[in-house]
């Protein structure tokens, strides 16, 4: 027995007329009648009562009708799912992301992607930049949304945006009312910084070095929101990407830095040899429009 036999059975059961059923299947009536007879022979029971001029379901046919619908429905779903998988509209998409990439707007992009491809299974992991590079090399993620770029062999980087760094200052600090501040004017301050994000830490250290000082770090945390709260608690000032200001925190203010303003790149990274159809769809969605 094949799935097509069940489709023939359902068509006749729906129309209760061989001619109309054959037309709905785009086939001639005699072959349809033959296939129904073949199905009945396989099942060793009659599905339709042919004793009168009307076609009606037998008790056995009526009993099997719903089961046939379920099997055909599952078969159609399987076929559609396989097609979606082949076309890059279904399957599993594994991504790693840095916290600042999510604050930049990755969450909105993921929502758009999941709406466009409801059959896609998106698995997301928040990871440090170094861990993202390792995961790409080991084929544990398909795409990495990172900060500062990844200069590793076999990885390709697509820059998505560039975020300026801003000073994060307690709201009761003497500089809190300033619209802008020179980074050099913060040389005597104590800072909070990143612990696991080496790339962002390097960007901040380089910016301070160019401003003529080495920052004194009193606390290192893994998450931007942790640093915001530590600034609010008086542990020091912070230098965070402008996108992190969207999180907000009580007791802190964001102040623009005067030129030259250090910036942080938001990038998506892939392994140059591996790109699933679904990952390619995600790349198309997030790439800047020319």
Automatic annotation (TrEMBL):
Keywords: Activator, DNA-binding, Plasmid, Transcription, Transcription regulation
Gene3D superfamilies: Periplasmic binding protein-like II, Winged helix-like DNA-binding domain superfamily/Winged helix DNA-binding domain
Domain of life: Bacteria
Gene Ontology cellular component terms for the protein in this record: protein-DNA complex
Gene Ontology MF annotations: DNA binding; DNA-binding transcription factor activity
Pfam family, one: LysR_substrate
Record has Coiled coil as a keyword: no
Residues covered by the HTH lysR-type domain: 1-58
Keyword Transcription regulation: yes
Record-stated family: Belongs to the LysR transcriptional regulatory family.
Protein's UniProt name: Transcriptional regulator, LysR family protein
């Amino acid at each position: 027995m094949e799935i097509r036999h069940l489709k023939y059975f359902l068509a006749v059961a729906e129309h209760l007329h061989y001619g109309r059923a054959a037309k709905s299947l785009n086939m001639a009536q005699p072959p349809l009648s033959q296939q129904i007879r073949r199905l009945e022979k396989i099942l060793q029971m009659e599905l339709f009562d042919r004793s009168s001029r009307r076609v009606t379901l037998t008790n056995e046919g009526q009993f099997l009708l719903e089961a046939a619908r379920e099997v055909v429905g599952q078969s159609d779903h399987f076929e559609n799912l396989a097609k979606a998988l082949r076309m890059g509209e279904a399957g599993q998409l594994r991504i790693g992301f840095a916290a600042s990439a999510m604050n930049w707007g990755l969450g909105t992009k993921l929502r758009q992607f999941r709406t466009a491809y409801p059959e896609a299974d998106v698995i997301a992991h928040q990871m440090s930049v170094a861990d993202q590079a390792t995961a790409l090399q080991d084929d544990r993620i398909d795409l990495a949304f990172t900060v500062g770029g990844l200069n590793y062999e076999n990885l390709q980087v697509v820059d998505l945006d560039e975020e300026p760094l801003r000073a994060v200052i307690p709201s009761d600090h003497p500089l809190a009312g300033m619209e802008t501040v020179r980074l050099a004017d913060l040389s005597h301050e104590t800072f909070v910084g990143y612990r696991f994000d080496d790339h962002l830490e390097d960007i901040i250290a380089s910016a301070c070095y160019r401003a003529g000082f080495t920052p004194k770090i009193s606390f290192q945390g893994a998450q931007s929101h942790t640093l915001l709260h530590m600034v609010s608690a008086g542990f020091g000032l912070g230098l965070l990407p402008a996108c992190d200001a969207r999180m907000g925190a009580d007791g802190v203010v964001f102040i623009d830095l005067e030129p030259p303003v250090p910036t942080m790149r938001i990038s998506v990274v892939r392994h140059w040899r591996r790109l699933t159809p679904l990952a390619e769809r995600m790349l198309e969605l997030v790439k800047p429009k020319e």
